[in-house]
Write a structure and sequence with these properties.
This protein is α+β, with helices and mostly antiparallel strands. The protein is built from 3 helices and 7 strands; from the N terminus they run αββββαββαβ. It has a 7-stranded antiparallel β-sheet with strand order 2-1-5-6-7-4-3. Strand 3 and strand 4 form a beta hairpin. The longest helix is centred in the C-terminal third of the chain and has 11 residues. About 30% of the residues are buried. The mean pLDDT is about 95.
């Protein structure tokens, strides 16, 4: 079990967008920018699916994900690896759906990731 350090949590809060990587069951990779990427607690991050059909399709086939947040000017950031879960109901889903609806965006799913590894850059 990996735990997000205070520094990793700060970077996730301050550096946007995150880049999330997924792969289909045959290994075909996909990268997607996520402006909704956020820390839930010491062991979980989440992001909204607003326009990411390939990301969601890949997670359905293969729940393994990787993400990176990075500040190129400071050459600092962090990488996260974990297992994703697709949410379509519940408090987290409803909260993010309402938040983005106020900005005129429709959340189709929320992806909750159990952090398994973190590497600071």
């Amino acid at each position: 079990m990996a735990v997000l350090s205070d520094e990793a949590k700060r970077m996730i809060r301050e550096m946007s967008p995150a880049v999330v990587g997924t792969a289909s069951k045959d290994g075909t990779p996909n990268l997607s920018l996520k402006g909704s990427f956020r820390v839930l607690d010491d062991e979980h991050v989440a992001f909204a699916d607003i326009a990411s059909p390939q990301t969601v399709a890949n997670i359905r086939e293969n729940p393994r994900v990787a993400a990176i947040v990075f500040d190129a000017s400071q050459r600092k950031g962090c990488r996260i690896w974990g297992s994703a879960e697709i949410l379509t109901e519940g408090d987290l889903f409803n909260s993010m759906k309402e938040e983005f609806a106020r900005r005129g965006m429709e959340v189709k799913h929320v992806i909750k990731v159990k952090v398994e590894r973190v590497k600071m850059l």
